[in-house]
Amino acid sequence: MSLSRKIVLSVAGNKLVSGFIKKYGMKMGAARFVAGETLKEAIDQVRLLNKDGLVVTLDHLGEFVFEESEALASTQACLDVLDAIHESGVTSNLSLKMTSLGLDLSKEMCLKHMRMILDKAREYDNFVRIDMEDYAHIDVTMEIFDELKREYGKHVGLVIQAYLFRTVEDMKRLESEYEHCNLRLVKGAYMESPSVAFPNKADVDQNYLKIIDMHLLSGHFSAVATHDDMVIQHTKEFVKQHNISHDQFEFQMLYGVRPETQRALVKEGYAMRVYVPYGNDWYGYFSRRIAERPANAFFILKNMFRK
């Protein structure tokens, strides 16, 4: 972890700072990265993105669940998202973290909640993306995904992280076992032991390109989640070289990050999906966006002192 990232996350953990940002942050600039605190605000933003040709995945923010009632509330929020997408007619799917659905409380509870969500997604012919979390959750996440994949088929997909040693073998298994294996390919954002993950950025970057190529060639749908021009260009050249149809993959970026590039890709004829988070529990997500790119802090400071 870089020094600047450590400093930002340390400051973000300060009670005085967090209290101030939580009170005024949305007005000062958090709204650049978070689509609002309410579902209605989020749907309004999705509608605007759709008008520019962008498709969306919505995520109700929430990370720490300690009670079954909290897990059920998070589950209901996901159901509400699917209802709102269907009723509004916007083009969006749903992304979620299974820890918010009670995974740390019990596997059975999480499975029950996931089935409630996927029943509705299948009813609406929509799609749910399961986020991959830290290494400690990978095995149970894979177990649950396998069970749900057999039941819900094309309506559920997974995130795969390039920085893990095991990733290529995991992908080979998934690609061979399932007819529809829609994977979101990312580099990975958690701090992991060098015994399970590549410690050097150059190795992660190399493995990321490797798994993009691998999944594109598999014939399954690939979601290439990146803001990196090099990765974007590599993907463009690879699909052209191998005559891979544009409907077999999409680029994905975060809401508020490189919006001009997002729209430029749409104009070039590529599918571009925007990850749109919303909800009251936005502070942790917002802090990580600042930590990833400390230049974003200047954007916030500018808004703080704007007359």
Automatic annotation (TrEMBL):
Domain of life where this protein originates: Bacteria
InterPro entries in the record: FAD-linked_oxidoreductase-like, PRODH_bac_arc, Proline_DH_dom, Proline_oxidase
EC class (word): oxidoreductase
All residue ranges annotated as the Proline dehydrogenase domain in the record: 43-299
This protein's UniProt keywords: FAD, Flavoprotein, Nucleotide-binding, Oxidoreductase, Proline metabolism
Catalysed reaction equations from the record: L-proline + a quinone = (S)-1-pyrroline-5-carboxylate + a quinol + H(+)
Biochemical pathway: Amino-acid degradation; L-proline degradation into L-glutamate; L-glutamate from L-proline: step 1/2
SUPFAM superfamilies: FAD-linked oxidoreductase
Cofactor: FAD
Keyword match Oxidoreductase: yes
EC number: 1.5.5.2
Protein name: proline dehydrogenase
